[in-house]
Amino acid sequence: MEKMILLNPGPVCTSDRVRSSLMKGDMCHRESEFSAILSNTRKKILQAFAPNGDYTTAIITGSGTASLEAGICSSVSDGKKILIINNGVYGERISRIASAYRFNKVELKYDWRERPDIKQIEDVILKDPDIEVVAMVHHETTTGLINPITDVGAITNKYGRTFFLDSVSGLGGEEIDLANDNVDICIGTANKCIQGLPGLSFVLLKRDEVKRLRNIPPRSLYLNVISQLDEQEQKGECPFTPSVHTFYAFEEALDELLEEGVRGRLNRYRKASTYLREEFKRLNLELLLPEGLLSNTITALYLPRNMTYAHLHDSLKERGFIIYAGQGQLNKTIFRIANMGELTMNDLDALIVNLQEVLEDK
Ligand SMILES: Cc1ncc(COP(=O)(O)O)c(C=O)c1O
What we know:
This protein has helices spanning 16-20, 32-49, 64-73, 89-100, 118-127, 149-158, 207-213, 225-235, 244-260, 262-282, 309-318, 345-359, and strands at 5-6, 55-61, 81-86, 104-109, 131-137, 139-140, 145-146, 162-166, 185-189, 200-206, 298-302, 321-322, 324-325, 334-338. By secondary structure, the chain is α/β, with parallel strands linked by helices. Pyridoxal-5'-phosphate (PLP) is lined by residues 9-10, 63-65, 68, 90, 137, 141, 166, 168-169, 189.
């Protein structure tokens, strides 16, 4: 297949090294060889994202939503509530998961182009002792907005609540310090800023939080964090058949990340998005969000007047570039360009040249 430059926020372009790891051969997941891969992969996740913190992790075969659902359905005690801070499609997804489990939920909805109101969040938590878990998305992939994790973590810590963070599109690409930001449960995935392949995701948990979760009755057989964690930690196995080959690629991608350094990865992404945004402005494209709210990896842009998303997308696809549509209420007005993954500055230059030609109808 012809190589496409993927500018969608995952699955991303991966290196030859990550893709070739799939050829390691077939392996039984109940053998010591797989236990070694599982253990190393878990260690490398912790090395990358919680090097000093008292955290552990369970890897789940399934996309980011699987780990998100596992984390949510395993963390709210019977009779308690979850507060959901919702300013995009993925905040909305947390809310839908809470509804699917019939949890008592309190929802604070905000404009998709704005950060949540910290004072309001504190007031709601203060007034409602039944709120046990406060859930938020780190990087709202809908718009490319970075939510204020340090401020929310300070509040949950102050009032002794669990801070649940969806960092599916954040880990590896955005600033985060799990321990300092008081994050108790954090969800990540293999195929975005970690540059692995789709099919694996993970739950990072503070060790103290594991103790609390043990008292909550399992509500799912597959998506239970405690049973996944116990099998992985104690037996060195996954409870059900894991995506073995995707593990090869995940471990390789984590090696690449650790070699580049999480800081190095973040800087590379920041440099790429800064360059792209300068070029977008030069092409008279208007950004959805103001500078201060922007992530390192996604730029949401208003569609140019007189151009549909379908035309823009199809024209760029013919030239080898995949861009991404707006979601929900922004479906007709914006498009998104992500710079996650194995992309070179030459790839980005080529995108700009081609984008300019499409915009000028050449
Ligand atoms: C912030 C966030 N959360 C959750 C998800 C869901 O992940 P998946 O599509 O892998 O299930 C995504 C996917 O883009 C995301 O960006």
